[in-house]
Each structure stands twice: as C-alpha cells, then as structure tokens.
Amino acid sequence: MFSRHFGQFLLQEGIVTPQTLSRALARLSDARPLVGILALAKGFMTPAQVREVNRIQKREDKRFGQIAIEKGYLTAEKLEELLSAQKNEHVLLGQILVEDRVLSHEGLLRALELYREKSGLSPEGYEAMTGGDTDRAVASVLAGQPGGKNSLVRIWGELFVRNVIRFVDPAAALDPLAEKGNGGLVTFLQPMKGDRELTVFISAEEPVLADLARRFSDLASGVFDEMAREAVGEFLNVSNGLFTVNCSDKGIELDLLPQEEVPGNDPRLRRKPDGLLPLLLPEGILWAGILC
Amino acid sequence: MNEKNYSVLVCDDSAMIRKTLGGILGEWGIKNIFEAGNGNEAVDMYREHHPDLVFMDIVMPEKTGLEALVEIRSEDPSARVIMASSTGTKKNLMTAIDAGAFDFIQKPFEKDVIHTLLRKILKGELD
C-alpha cells in the first residue's frame, strides 16, 4: 500500500526520523482519512483553507465538507469524490504525521509534491498509486518500459502484484523510486514456451526472499536456507501458473518450464526486461521482471 | 480408518510441497507415503510400490508429470493419479483428462480441497 512506500520516501528524504515513522505506521490500522487531508492531497484545497475550516469546526457543529462547500472551497461533486476516496488508505500516513505535528499541512503538501516529482509518475499514475488502484499503478510503472504497451506484459504485471498482495504481504507497495543493481541479488527465473517464449524472474537480497518465503509457507523459518529457496521457487511457480491460466483463458497457451536459481549476472538478465516492477516488502525491494 | 494400509505417492520437484502434502496425508493416518522429485522417479516408484493414489505435479525436470501420467496409466490403467499443479490451463486440463487423470487440483493447495478429495477417494472405500 502507498503508506509504507510514502513512509520510506519521507525517511529517505530526511523528512521524518525512523522513530516518528515507526510510531505513525503503528497507528495506521486504527486511523481513518480525514476529508481535509484528502482535499489537500488532491489539490482541491490549500493548507490555509483546511486550517480555516478546522477552526470553524471547533465552534460550529458541522461536518468538514459542509463548511468547505459553504465557504466555496469545495463543490458537492468534489466532496463526493473525497468521500469515496476515504475508503482508501490514501495519504493516511501524512495525516497521522500532521496530527503528531511532525509535519505541517504545508510540509505534507511539499512532501507529496516532491514525491510526485521524484517518482516520475504521470498524474494518472500518481492518482492510482495513492488511491490503491493496483492495476492502474502497475500500468503506470510499466509505461515507458520496453513492454509497456504489450498487453501480455501488462497482464503479467497486474497479476504478479496481486499475487504478492494475496499470498505474501497485503501491504506490499510498488516503489517507482527504487533503483536496481544486480550486486548481492539472488534471482529465480522461470522460462515459458508455447504460443510465446518468455521468462519471468524475481530478484532480491536474501533477507527479502527469506521473509517472502516465511510469509508464503509455514515451513520456512525466515532464514534463507534450502526450505526458503523451495518456498520462493514455489511462490514463483504458483504466480506463473496463474499467469498461464490467465493467458490460456485469452487463447494464449504457455507451458511452464522448471525454474532455476541464478546469480545476478546471469547472461539472460543482461538485457533490459520488457517489464520490471519494484515491490516494497518489509525487508526491502523485490524485483519482478519479464523478458519476452 | 487404516484397516487397509493405504499408500500414496507424492511427486513434486519441490521438497516443500512434498512435505506439505505429506503432512496432510499424515493427518489421515496414512503412513505409507512415497516421494518422487521428478517424472522418472515417479514412474519407477509406481512400478515398485503400486500406491493406491498418486499426487503428481506437472512442471518438473527430466520428465513432466503429464508424461509420467501417460506412462503410469499405460502400464496400469487402474492407477489413480491426481494432477496437482499451479498451471491449470485448458490445455493441461484436457491433456490430463485424456491421459486418464483422476482429478486436477490447482496450486496453491487449500487444505480443505485435499481433505474433500481424500474423503471422496479413500474414506468412501473404507466405510
């Protein structure tokens, strides 16, 4: 989810300390996004307008949206959009940091703008990332990559991220700011043949894979041992299997071939993947790629 | 339930899957569990032990589960082989059915699905 990724960004930029971030993340599950913070994040209202409405709320028994409409800061349509977005975890972390006075409203706005700028996401991509729209977020990260317009790459990417969320970590988040090097990464790859020939791989540092294995299988202990390798391999196998089923439903038959664990400098990994997705997991980045 | 000493062959290149399935079978009181890591081993072990039931993965090195299924069923048309794979494509399903697979279960396994299957196959005969 976006909160974890945004928290990582705030940490890297020195905007928050590890302690304040950790405290804020611990409160995430109990928090509910406020209309004012959402209006700020979406650019519907300025920090001064939000503060003014908050002040009025202290002396008048009215809802934030009602006051904002009366003041002409929001339209009914915009308010409706914000109320729908409340269901998402959208910028909840920022809200907690404002409540904890780690950030001011202006500071939160600047941090979101900085994130938008550094991530290189399109406005639609940013909207999808912050709104938790996984499929559109994947499309946005893949856009500009060699296979960004390839429907098979899109199908793989969307399914892979959903599989990570489903089988490994419900809070996994795409991290468009991650930078990949091959050093120290362990890679599992699995070729497929049939109507197309392609290879799917996942790469990460050992602690990330050990944690993935533990989350995927009760048999893995959290240490990157033989059982963890088996579990990571099985996760890739399950994910790719579901991909082949999805392709089969669309009339594309693919057969999975046995997978291999290879070093980061394996010749097959030298060329730029058609699709490459960085996923932020608790222990670090999991890279997933497809070579068509 | 184990009046007849049931035996099951679990064939999967993943030791993790073999252990997981073995654990579920153990809950059913099945003690004779044989393990194979690829299709070749599966065919050899079937010949040697003639298990009552086989769980067979599809994607494996050396010989695929579908190839092993064909070989086992050609030698023993009464062999009960359940394909257990992540890749339940139409093509694989059709090939498995044509080759005489008893059933097909999609990975990741849900324990309830395995239990239902075992109840259908084993318990029915024991009662």
Automatic annotation (TrEMBL), chain A:
Keywords: Chemotaxis. InterPro entries: CheC-like_sf (IPR028976), T2SS_E_N_sf (IPR037257). Gene3D superfamilies: CheC-like. The keyword Signal does not apply. One of its GO terms (biological process) is chemotaxis. SUPFAM superfamilies: CheC-like, EspE N-terminal domain-like. The keyword Iron-sulfur does not apply. This is Chemotaxis phosphatase CheX-like domain-containing protein. It comes from bioreactor metagenome. The lineage of its organism: unclassified sequences, metagenomes, ecological metagenomes.
TrEMBL record, chain B:
SUPFAM superfamilies: CheY-like. InterPro entries: CheY-like_superfamily, Sig_transdc_resp-reg_receiver, ST_Response_Regulator. It holds the Pfam family Response_reg. One of its GO terms (biological process) is phosphorelay signal transduction system. PROSITE patterns: RESPONSE_REGULATORY. Residues 7-122 form the Response regulatory domain. This is Chemotaxis protein CheY. It comes from bioreactor metagenome. The lineage of its organism: unclassified sequences, metagenomes, ecological metagenomes.
